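Give me the 3D structure for Lipid A 3-O-deacylase (PagL).
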Amino acid sequence: MRVLAAAAVAAFFAAGQHDAQAGPDRVSILLGSHHVGATRNFEEFNPGIILVWDERVWRGNLDIAAGAYRNSYGDGSLALSLAYPFVKTDDWGLDLFGGFSWYPGNGQQFSHAIGDVVPIAGLQARYRNVFMQAIPAGGQAADAVFSFGLTFAME
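Predicted structure for Lipid A 3-O-deacylase (PagL) (155 residues):
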C-alpha cells in the first residue's frame, strides 16, 4: 500500500501543480471482467470508479489514472496507472498502459508482486463511451483478464 501511495503522489507531482488542481478529464465506471483460461472461479462483476487525467505526464504524452474497484477475489482494490495513447479521436482510443494495483491480502495469488501490490500492464481500447482492457496474466490461475466498462468526459 505504501508503494502505491508513494507512486500516486509522485505521479501527481510529476504532472505539475496546475494540472493536478484542474481535476480529472474523464471518469470511467468499471463494470466487470472475464478471466480467459481460468483454473478457478473468479468474481466477474467488478464495479469501480477510475478518474483519468489526459495527457498530463512526459510532455503531455501520458494519461494518469487512479481508481478503486471490487477485485476478482471479492475485496476492494486501488490502482494507479499511466497510459500511452497510440490512437486518440473523439470516437476511438487505443492505449498501452502499465501501473500497480493493490490487492489487500491477495498478493500471494500473483506470480509477481511486492507484498500485496501487483504490477499490471496491457492494452486498452475505447469506442465512444465503452472501454475494454486486455491484461496478460501469468497463467497460474488465468491466461489473461479482459475488463470492461463505460467512460465519460468531464466537461
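Residues 1-17+49-138 form one domain. Let me know if you want a second pass.
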